[in-house]
Amino acid sequence: MTFVRHYGRPDLFITFTCNPKWVEVTRELLPHQQYFHRHDLIARVFKQKLTTLIDLIKKGQVFGPVKCHMYTVEWQKRGLPHAHILVWLVTKIDPILIDESIKAEIPNPTVDRQLYDIVKAHMVHGLCGPGFQNFSSCHKDHVCTKRYPKSFVDETQTAGDGYQLYRRRRPENGGFTLTLQGHQVDNRWVVPYCPLLMTIFNAHINVEFCHSVKSINYICKYVNKGSDAAMFGLQKDNSMDEVSQYLAGREQTAAQLAANPKQTTLTVFFRLCQIDTFAKTLLYPQVPSYYVWSKNTWVHRKSSQDVQEHPGVKFNSCLGRVYITSQPA
Question: Which InterPro entries match (predicted)?
Fold first, then answer.
């Protein structure tokens, strides 16, 4: 909440979800591979897309000049990441002008077929409730926790609970419909989005306008909530009467670990070669002769013999080695 105390309420809450059908992903898959076989590929492509999205918001000023932003990345159980982004704008958005940046309607297919197809693929809430799949994960006590379907609204307005009511016109009042899973869907099921960002990224990008401080508490906790936790029990063999001891631990998937690999002396050496011209002349086993490993990085030795023609570089007779990992039989 430090950002809120200093900058006030954020203006936009954006959720950006990875699309496993991005061409940058599919073209790199080997025959018979699926996206969940390549956690490294998913992590790299999503990171590049997220960086581009934030650059568009900050430098491209898609929504106007940006004062500051913050974001967090979460990983779904199926191995796909999504980012929650809060944006503070220099000039607050006038609620009257919301429709210029945020839409919650099905696009006109004859005017912009590409946007129509993208919205149909990514921005329609999963059909739930009577007549649909009642076992949907968004349902609790037979009620959609995401409040879908929404109500029809002729003009964008602000609700009493601080949440924005976006324009969602009826079919007879200029709204469009589409067919999904054999059902006719209208604007009540559309998740709010920015047309420009949808066209650029071809992914689920939910853009919400923050109008009141009442909604900020939930949003900020959502962005800063901790990692998933898992419960597991410990019990002695053949001791069914023993009281189980449960431990709470942090749950991390293979996809999360691929996105944030641990640093090693070898990988840090690769980065050292990008910024240190002298390091480029060395083989990895020679590195300990000129550098010492300190606080997860290689730093120049401060004592020992000077190296000619390389000011500040010291030499020691220490050598390193590359360990061999044998494959199990």
Answer: Helitron_helicase-like
User: Mean pLDDT over residues 41-55, rounded?
Assistant: 95
Please report the pLDDT score of residue 308 as a whole number: 78
Q: What is the mean pLDDT of residues 48-65?
A: 95
In sequence order, the 6+-apart residues with CB closer than 8 A to the CB of 102 are: 164, 166, 192, 193, 194, 207, 208, 209
CA distance 191 to 216: 19
User: 17 forms bridges with which residues in the sheet?
Assistant: 82
Give Cβ neighbours of residue 69 (< 8 Å, ≥ 6 apart). Answer: 54, 57, 58, 85, 86, 87, 88
Q: 215 vs 10, 91, 318, CA distance in Å? A: 10, 20, 59
pLDDT class of 243 with cuts at 50, 70, 90: very low
The residue assigned the tokens 């061409």 is: 23
Q: What is the mean pLDDT of residues 241-268?
A: 67
* Beta-carbon contacts of residue 22 (< 8 Å; ≥ 6 apart): 45, 49, 202, 203
Contact in structure between 284 and 266 (CB atoms under 8 Å) = yes
- Bridge partners, residue 157, by sequence: 165
Please give the model's pTM, rounded to 2 decimal places.
0.72
Encode burial over 90-125: b for 16+ CB neighbours within 10 A, e otherwise: eeebeeeebeebbbbbbbeeeeeeebbebbbebbbb
CB crowding 134-173: b at 16 or more within 10 Å, else e? eebeebeeeebeeebbbeebeebeeeeeebbbbbbbeeee
For residues 166 and 98, the answer to whether their CB atoms sit within 8 Å is yes
Q: Where are the domains of the chain?
A: 2-224, 265-315
